[in-house]
Amino acid sequence: MVHDRSVRIRTRRAGRGGSDRPSPAALRLGAWAVGCALALLTAAAAWAQEAPGADATPASHGVFTAEQAERGAETFAASCAGCHGADLSGDFGPRLVPLDPWRWSDAPLSELYAFVRSNMPFGAPGSLSDEAYLDLIAFLVRENGHPPGDAPLVADSEFLSSVVLDDPPATDAAEEPEEVPDDPNDR
Ligand code: HEC
What we know:
This protein is mostly helical.
């Protein structure tokens, strides 16, 4: 209400003791706000740079070979399944099928590769060869529904950053949620 607001403004002015100079708290708040705005701008600029461009290759286009994913399956069973489950559904570690969409949807494979290589196996990061890590990424991409292709995934950062983890292509109708007949005439 108009009346209420004018009362509140008058009280606040009075609280500042009539001085026109901003209080130290107000200055700090101002500096904080500017800092936030800068951080946001920086983040936005970084995002704009890293956002997959029109030339990004979706992982659904076949970015690894079937052999790579097979080798990755063996490495996974030996080094990862103990925490993520043999079926990748998660245990001590999070499920890897489907990979957390908030974190990995449309992320470049370079990020997944870098994360796994520098953090996994949990407790012994970097303990596998680069090739083994690539095989594991191929396996993870396959298990997340993407088909193999003719060319192997290679540990070239430019190439890996150009491949994004898109949604897997719809496979068979059996995986679609079944329609519930709610019209009695359909039964
Ligand atoms: C000792 C248990 C353990 C082992 C072994 C292990 N992980 Fe993990 N993993 C974890 C935990 C705990 C997390 C969650 C930590 C995080 O996301 O920072 C995790 C997270 C991950 C993630 C990210 C998941 C997400 O939801 O974002 C991936 C991918 C992954 N692990 C892959 C692997 C692979 C590949 C191997 C085998 C080389 C492996 N892990 C071995 C415990 C393990």
